[in-house]
User: Fold cysteine desulfurase from Brotonthovivens ammoniilytica.
Amino acid sequence: MNTEEIRKDFPILSETVNHRPLIYLDNGATTQMPRQVMECWTSHYCHQNANVHRGIHYLSEQSTLAHEAARQTTAEFIGCDDSRQIIFTSGATDSLNLLASGYAFPRLGPGKKVVVTEFEHHSNYVPWQQAAKRAGGTFTVIPVEGDVLDLERLKKELDEQTVILSVTAISNVTGTILPLQQIISMAHAKGIPVCVDAAQAMRHGGMNVKELDCEFLAFSGHKMLGPSGTGVLYGKKEYLKEIQPVRFGGGMVDIVDLKDTTFGEVPYCLEAGTPNYAGDIALAEAMQYMNKIGLEEIAAWEKELTDELEETLRGMEGVTVIGGKQPKNSVVSVSVDGVHPYDLASVLDKFGIAARSGNHCAQPVLRKLGYESLLRFSPAFYNTREEIHILAQAMEKSVAMLRKWC
Assistant:
């Protein structure tokens, strides 16, 4: 991978922060956007902009064609044969809320339950928790020990009362890659549908829904080089038809009269209102950009950077890398003796280094690990080994300085 050439596609990587070259290691929160995606977004507004599925004039038809082409690109990117299985949303959070409210809630009630894991981001935790609470059902959380999911406990909890299992593909705290195919097989053996939160995973080699055989898959555009406010919910045809619309308005209806309303077909009945069509089109461009580089190449380079980063941090005195030796990618979280993560992130920022401090929207697993806050580094394929070396030097200086103050 020619990282230096790739970096030229990302204008923001040439910025300086506090008079130092930007080193962006917060890709787990949001990735940067290549010039090609920005130009795609701008070009649509300059040459094709019009509301989709609403007009018969030229611009509306061109805009609609571009939006449906983006749906097709998205389907192909995740190994789906039918673009009608792609629902455009505002992000993984929106996708998971749609599922929790439109699929799980009508099926939950006394004696019924939804199952998640302690690894989950709040977006794949709170919507299910609240749906169970509103419906009077049970919200079951499978525990983790270190960075290992308790598969035996999961097997016991999956039963005929389980409405759905929802599980992340990669932990946004430890970087742990969960054994999805094993988990999905366990659920299917009991006839239980599975939703995969792929927000952290889509950039690291992609996700093939045909190989996974999951019933649902959710992800965000802003974590895979696309615009914010874009996302996708994939579903098997028979399951998408079972989702009750939870947002209503233009574009998703069939017949509206004084007494009742009938709804259109999937996917449109689940896409109320004017979609973020320019954003969806730009998201498809981001997928094409990654395809041109090569998903396997991206994943391999990110894994190399992750391994080098983890090894470097483990070698520092007083630095604890969270998680053991389970397979992981693009997330390394640490705790530093005597130094608060917020203070360390603030000082690293003076070196031009962008890192994330806090609970990472995953409070249950942090508390299970014994922390309230951690410092997280999340490299992407446009990062370099040199940046890892600069980070190591900045960490040594920052920690030494903060310990003197403490």
Q: What stands out?
A: Residues 11 and 75 are 29 Å apart (CA to CA). The domain at 37-292 is CATH 3.40.640.10 (Aspartate Aminotransferase; domain 2). The longest strand covers residues 162-168.
